[in-house]
């Protein structure tokens, strides 16, 4: 029997089915603002699953998810006490975001350790897994959307822009100049953080990117070796295997 895997992030909430072998083909996505009992009922009404595992960074939506599913099936919310398959080398483990723990759990079986998982979402997070393996911390920085959206909000003449690959570093219009600043500047931020982490982490970490802006940014960051859009959901699946076995 499959498990329902839910990644409840700030912008989007992603759903998948998985079992002891792999993630299934079925997927669904909701805007996190639209997560409600009604939308959850609509998405899941035809699904067959025996348990639910959730990573959530949105407390009010976590409450909605818990109240909807707990009367139907066993529900587990990922946290630092979940069976992650690794140790935690972090003083305040309860403060680690559930999505970051899911990424760490996913990287072990999919790519190995040591590793750096970069999740390009509303914020960009860098999660560092040592070769022991152990989750040992990371970095949180503004997401690409925050960088591109700040100027239109705070200036009178600068427009909102579409985030695409810039044609040149020398913009020939206001929009092109802003795209160059956002994309090339963001890649510089990512590369500097990677370099600093490598200086402090033993071994040669594999560097994985995931999240909505991963493909765009990874195109110009040669340090990123793999773009893996499923690492968070598969991390949830790995924890479900340890929790629920082969039921």
Structure overview:
The chain has 247 residues and is α/β, with parallel strands linked by helices. The chain has two domains: 1-87 and 97-111 and 232-247, ATPase, nucleotide binding domain (Nucleotidyltransferase, domain 5, 2-Layer Sandwich), CATH 3.30.420; 112-227, ATPase, nucleotide binding domain (Nucleotidyltransferase, domain 5, 2-Layer Sandwich), CATH 3.30.420. Helix content is 36%, strand content 26%. It has seven helices and eleven strands. The protein has helices spanning 37-44, 59-69, 98-110, 144-154, 174-200, 214-218, 231-244, and strands spanning 3-8, 12-18, 23-31, 51-56, 75-77, 87-88, 115-120, 123-130, 134-142, 206-211, 226-227. Strands 6-9-8-7-10-11 form a six-stranded mixed beta sheet, with helices on both faces. A hairpin with a 4-residue loop joins strand 2 and strand 3 (23-31). Helix 3 (98-110) packs across helix 7. The longest helix has 27 residues, at 174-200. The radius of gyration is 19 Å and the shape is globular. The relative contact order is 0.17. The model has no long low-confidence stretch (mean pLDDT 91).
Helical percentage: 25-40%
Which homologous superfamily in CATH is the superfamily of the largest domain?
ATPase, nucleotide binding domain
In CATH terms, what is the fold-level topology of the largest domain? Answer: Nucleotidyltransferase, domain 5
SS summary, helix count: 7
Q: What is the end-to-end distance?
A: 6 Å
Largest sheet: 6 strands, mixed
């Amino acid at each position: 029997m499959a498990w329902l895997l839910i990644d409840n992030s700030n912008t989007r909430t992603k759903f998948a089915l998985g079992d002891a072998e792999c993630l299934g083909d079925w997927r669904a996505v909701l805007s996190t603002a639209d997560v409600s009992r009604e939308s959850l009922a609509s998405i899941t009404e035809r699904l067959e699953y025996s348990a639910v595992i959730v990573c959530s960074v949105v407390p009010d939506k976590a409450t909605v998810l818990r109240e909807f599913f707990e009367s139907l099936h066993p529900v587990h919310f990922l946290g630092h006490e979940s069976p992650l398959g690794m140790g935690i080398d972090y003083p305040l483990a309860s403060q680690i975001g559930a999505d970051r723990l899911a990424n760490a759990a996913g990287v072990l079986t999919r790519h190995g350790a040591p590793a750096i998982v970069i999740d390009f979402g509303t914020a960009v997070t860098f999660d560092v897994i040592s070769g022991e393996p152990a989750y040992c911390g990371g970095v949180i920085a503004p997401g690409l959307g925050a960088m591109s959206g700040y100027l239109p909000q705070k200036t009178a003449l600068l427009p909102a822009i579409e985030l695409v690959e810039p044609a040149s570093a020398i913009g020939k219009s206001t929009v092109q100049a802003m795209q160059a600043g956002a994309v090339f500047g963001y890649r510089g931020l990512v590369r500097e953080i990677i370099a600093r982490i490598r200086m402090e982490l033993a071994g040669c970490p594999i560097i994985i990117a995931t999240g909505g802006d991963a493909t765009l940014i990874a195109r110009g960051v040669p340090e990123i070796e793999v773009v893996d859009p499923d690492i968070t959901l598969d991390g949830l699946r790995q924890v479900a295997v340890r929790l629920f076995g082969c039921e």
